[in-house]
Amino acid sequence: MPLGQGLHYGSQPANQMLLEEAYRTVAIREGDKVIELPVIKAVFRSLGVSAMKGNRLAQAVRQSMRASWFDRSVLAASRALSRVLTRFRGYPEFD
Which of 1, 44, 49, 82 has the fewest CB atoms within 10 Å, measured from its CB? Predict the structure, then answer.
């Protein structure tokens, strides 16, 4: 297959395997209870616990993830607002 003409992201075998693994359910112990969570949620919880215990790498990763999420959220909100404003441009009650 020519470079740049690959399959859809979710249909590539490695990506599909990664997605399946990320959402596989695992049992974890929380105090005296055992709960089931998707792997990805268990990993984020573990990362948060490590960060709160002072692990600097975990703190840096969490901060980077938070900043990345915030940047994408602000960008998405800005684009949505722009689409709305463009749609209503020219209406007298919105000028």
Answer: 1
